[in-house]
Amino acid sequence: MSDALPYETDGGAGTRGRFGLIVLSTDETLEVEARAVLHRPGLALYHARIPAHALVTPDTLRLMEAQLPDTAGRLPAGLDAIGYACTSGATVIGPDRVRELVQSRHPATPVTNPITAVIAALQALNARRIALVTPYVAEVNAPIRAILRDHGIDTITVRSFEQKEDWTVARISEASTLAALTQAGQSGADAIFASCTNLRSFGILDEAERATGLPVVTSNQALLWHMSKVTGVTADNGGPGRLFAL
């Protein structure tokens, strides 16, 4: 019988920052875009998948509320921040309720979500009148507009792909999103908000800002930016768009 090898311990992966994401089981975009920002030495990203319905409606979004504690519990302890990565889900369930449910398993960890992050981002950009671009149907857009309005942000125009099926949302081309953002930029808004973590945008976000002359905030961009802000951990090269320069 051999003797056990000697060893030392250190801080493990993520010596600069450890981030957790609760990702929808139907989402195919967030993790790809998150890696573009957090793929840096010393930064660690951990994911837990929450069961999500393939069709996005207020009723199906509410179903995730019951799943949040157990899903959060599958993330490792000692994270610097956790993001519940669903804009419409956080809006329908409520940001405070999301934080309460996640912190039931991670009491000391800061918790954010895309709608909270977007509100913080738009406030940081001094944007009070926005153009909204979404893949959602009207019944999902309505509570998003309402929560923005409650925080002093008026939605002056909405352009939507009117799609319920999340599988299809993940396959809306970035060229289509760029065209929608460019059109939205003609509305006289202070900024453009492209909602949904499953809607791809990182490849065209800078181009959209050049074309419109406006800051463009997306769900994934804002969530990653806000997680860095609440922890004080920043990626070396930031991310796309004006937001990461703040």
Automatic annotation (TrEMBL):
UniProt xrefs under Pfam families: Amdase (PF17645)
Classification via PANTHER family: BLR3294 PROTEIN (PTHR40267)
Name this polypeptide is given: Asp/Glu/Hydantoin racemase family protein
Lineage start: Bacteria, Pseudomonadati, Pseudomonadota, Alphaproteobacteria, Rhodobacterales
